[in-house]
Write a structure and sequence with these properties.
The protein is of the alpha/beta class. It is built from 15 helices and 15 strands.
Length: about 450
Amino acid sequence: MLECCAVLEWAACGAMSLTGQPDGAPVPSPAPVLAMLETVAEELAQVTRETGKRVRPDPAELITARAALAGYTRRGRTSASGSSFLLRSADGWCAVTLSRPDDLTAVPAILGVLGLNEAALPVEPRAMLAAEGLAAAALARPARELAAAAQLLGVPAAALPTPTVPVTGSWPPWRTARIALPSPGARLAGAVVADLSSMWAGPLCARLLGLADADVVKVESPDRPDGARSGNREFFDWLHAGHRSLAADFRTSAGRAALKALLGAADIVIEASRPRALAALGLAPDMIPHPHGQVWLSVTGYGWTAPDLVAFGDDAAVAGGLVGWTNGRPSPEPVFCADAIADPLAGVCGALAVARSVAAGGGELIDLSMRDVAAAFAAAPAPAHGPHEVRPDGFVTCPQGGRRQAVLAPRRPVPSPGAMARHAADLGADTTAVLEWLASRSDAC
């Protein structure tokens, strides 16, 4: 019986169609990402069955859902979303993400930090044009120097690891610390999840916990809601359908008090903020009391050991060495792997880490770095079947047995179960009900 082929599986899941140059053939993942994700999904199914409803996510759906809904295609050294760029440097490659207005306006300052002339930058602040200005600068500087200059200005950037400066991956890609006493009999079913995260990784974790029968409360500030609300609505609904929505103005004492009360009552907290941002609000993990068994998941770009570094899914994947490689001349050249792949990988790993903790009684802070998650997947042994032929007709042939597989398109997500859980709640739709619940708990105490 022939073994499964990780390359053919990658082609079948839709991720391979997102990896490679737009005018060239798609390229395989450098590591058996899908096979490893299958293992994570299976363990998540086993652990969630112990404390709630069994959740066994579809790995292909996890990593290609957004691209399927948005109609993304492979763009080589520009990310599928068009906001991240792989730039050749003096000694390698550097990824820079310019997805926010502040990132674009920071480009001249980045060049200034590098001591370069910014006069050649285009006046129109579009991401592609700004990236072209940075590309010229990158050629004259080491990748780590360019990344450091960008990070100094709060712009997500990362040098691609090299043999001389490697990133090692290990499993599991998270760290835990005790913050409360464990609670024997802790369960996901009925657990209250306070989800302070945004965009993709944290919300995906919340979605998976919600499918395990947890009660998810999505927390947003009315003046700065989750940026994903203004993106693809189907994707936002897929992540947040069935969750309650609490709007709290963190700038006011009443808003901070409500949030503090929720964090003190929740069984699980998911957040993706820099530690100093939470501390400024008086809401850092060491500044609030934790009920027995509470699990606090912190999803950041580089973990709590590098709290000032920022990252999004594409540049975090590059930081972990998770990229595709094309047959460039005179040497192979990197391309972005699928679509912001560190986000969905971190989301499902976060769900597994929380489920494991709850099954053991909880009472833990989980420090989850998207860079470390990407590195753990990148470090998995490469497929052993040898070079695979990728044909112009869109088929991949495996050397073992000559099996063929069409490179399929990204897979559209399946809506959350339940007739009443097809769309995400409007911003703040459940604020009154959540505040009344918190008040009742306070009165009971």
